[in-house]
Backbone:
């Protein structure tokens, strides 16, 4: 079974080492970053199951890192900070954090909170997967498979990436340019007709004519 991954974004090396040691003993794979910029890059590359995020970082405020992470990644965040007043706690939670622990902390409490957050988060994810399956289309990111009414659908890698992106963002409208950036990357030299062609193929191959909806004058959205 693959180990769950934790990203620690903490500029105080002794604290980062304590957290790394403690969570490795719990069976996690742990990565550390000393700045907000490093943390954002590591989150994109490593795809952690949870982020432990310090409020006070040398380059970017932890709350700003938190906002950026929640915009880019589907990952729970536990904030660590010396700030203990209620206003700061609420500010951190409003920035997207799932929980909040003040320094100095007891490692056992941090471990317990992480397990609680992960149980809650994974339960929500499982509910979403079940909902997707009930809508007759089932997409497995881990196995890189798509089933329509229980039958496999053969997609190209880009078609799969595009469908997975829509499934992860149900009912949200995306422009063609936004889809190009998300799926093909900022340096892609093609034009937006590429998106239209892939949408047409997805509709045909996976019978998604009623679920991949054209929003005229804007772009596309996926309606489960």
Residues:
């Amino acid at each position: 079974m693959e180990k769950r991954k934790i990203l620690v974004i903490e500029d105080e090396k002794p604290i980062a080492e304590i957290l790394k040691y403690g969570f490795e003993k719990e069976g996690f794979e742990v990565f550390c970053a000393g700045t907000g910029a490093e943390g954002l890059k590591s989150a994109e590359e490593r795809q952690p199951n949870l982020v432990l995020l310090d409020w006070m970082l040398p380059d970017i405020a932890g709350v700003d890192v938190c906002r950026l992470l929640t915009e880019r990644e589907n990952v729970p965040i536990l904030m660590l900070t010396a700030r203990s007043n209620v206003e700061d706690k609420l500010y951190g939670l409003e920035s997207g954090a799932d929980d909040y622990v003040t320094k100095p902390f007891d490692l056992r409490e941090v471990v317990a909170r992480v397990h609680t957050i992960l149980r809650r988060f994974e339960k929500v994810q499982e509910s979403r997967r079940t909902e997707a399956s009930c809508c007759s289309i089932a997409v497995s990111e881990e196995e890189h498979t798509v089933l329509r009414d229980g039958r496999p659908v053969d997609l190209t890698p880009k078609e799969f990436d595009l469908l997975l992106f829509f499934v992860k963002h149900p009912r949200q409208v995306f422009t063609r340019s936004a889809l190009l950036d998300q799926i093909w990357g900022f340096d892609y030299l093609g034009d937006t007709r590429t998106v239209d062609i892939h949408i047409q193929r997805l509709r045909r191959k996976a019978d998604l004519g009623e679920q991949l909806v054209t929003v005229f004058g804007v772009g596309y959205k996926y309606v489960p």
